[in-house]
Design brief:
Length: about 170
């Protein structure tokens, strides 16, 4: 049985339209950012309004907030990957300095930062992703979502992952 090409195209068009209506593409997490603020904070100032999974030398201490705004893991990993791979990578952080970014999703924000401590200076590399995932995946472990943040402290740095709401980092 032969069908004219126009009939085949029309049927395919109706099918694809019905399929697209039934199965809509979820927007990418990164598409939801309203804005991103970034900066470097010098000692005494406060913060205003290529993945490596290898552990570094020295003890890493994890501190969990266990309170405040709860967010899902998906936007959190998106923020960590964007900041570490596209914004912070290669930056030199001197003792007492903090580099940071606050991603605004409208209903919530996610603040990420890295601070040089104990007289150290460092250059941000791919380990940034792993260090910021420690409070993401090591805190609020009863499920994949409901993350409230925390920070990792080691010999030379402190890495903070902090969801917030209403312009606050809480």
């Amino acid at each position: 049985m032969k069908f004219p090409l126009a009939v085949i195209v029309a049927v395919a068009s109706v099918f694809s339209s019905a399929y697209a209506t039934a199965v809509q593409r979820a927007p990418a997490v990164a598409d939801k950012w309203i804005s991103v603020e970034t900066g470097i904070t010098m000692p005494g100032e406060s913060i205003p309004g290529n993945t490596t999974l290898e552990k570094r030398y020295g003890t890493e201490v994890l501190t969990c907030y266990n309170m405040g705004t709860k967010v899902d893991r998906a936007p959190s990993t998106s923020v960590i990957d964007d900041w570490c791979n596209n914004r912070a990578i290669g930056q030199v952080v001197n003792n007492g300095q903090t580099i940071w970014a606050r991603y605004n999703y409208g209903t919530f924000t996610i603040l990420v930062s890295g601070e040089a401590i104990n007289g150290c200076s460092f250059k941000v590399d791919g380990n940034c992703n792993r260090l910021l995932r420690l409070p993401l995946d090591g805190c609020n472990t009863s499920g994949e979502n409901g993350k409230q943040g925390g920070y990792e402290t080691d010999l030379c740095g402190q890495w903070r992952y902090d969801p917030g709401s209403n312009g606050s980092d809480y």
